[in-house]
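Before a colleague's protein record goes any further, I have to sign it off. Alongside the sequence sits a line of tokens, each denoting a local backbone shape. I want your independent view on whether this chain really folds as the tokens say. Where you disagree with what is written, explain briefly why. This is what I was given:
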Amino acid sequence: MSKIIDDFIAPPCHDEIKYIYQDEHLILINKPSGLLSLSGKNPQNLDSVHHRLIKIFPNCTLVHRLDFGTSGLMVIARNKIINAALCQQFSQRAVTKVYHALLCGHLHNDEGIIDAPITKDPALFPLMSINAITGKPARSHYHVLERFYQRLEDGSSLPLTRVRLTPETGRTHQLRIHCQYLGHPILGCDLYGGRLLSGTEKIPRLMLHASELHFIHPISGTPINAQCESPF
């Protein structure tokens, strides 16, 4: 098996984590784009959501992660018991996650389902790939919100589609690779074709934002319906 070599060094992230909600059991945050969820093995990748939060909440642990370039909602457990309860909700697919994204080009259909199994391939690291034989089931829903053209510096226009994405499963890079599979990669996605169209090379970030998170509070039993408006 090929040895995985991770030579990614995250540039400094000067944006702050924004707090959406907190109590004695959990924290809801808005993660900035360009911040790792968890510190990497390389000492230069120390800065992360977890690294910043444990300075304030010493016993906190991550329940789930967002990709480095993805912004938006994350729920953080303040102790191991809450972490286990929330992880159970995630594993049972009792948590609803909603994302907003800008896709390259104009989608033909107004809505649809992407059903394409995803697998890891050490030879392609850090890319994931679609594989009907070895891939794990992965399913995403999309709904078109807007089709428009963005004016670029050179005067040309870039066709874009604003979509609402709802993943049923939680595979690594699922939404990014599913949108590429659809033929319309997420704008700014360096791994899956979101910088290939002319004029997209200077896009400052991955245009993917976790905008809604719906789950049950593990102690009170109250439905938590968190929302965080997309910055793009």
User: Anything to note?
Assistant: The chain has one domain: 18-227.
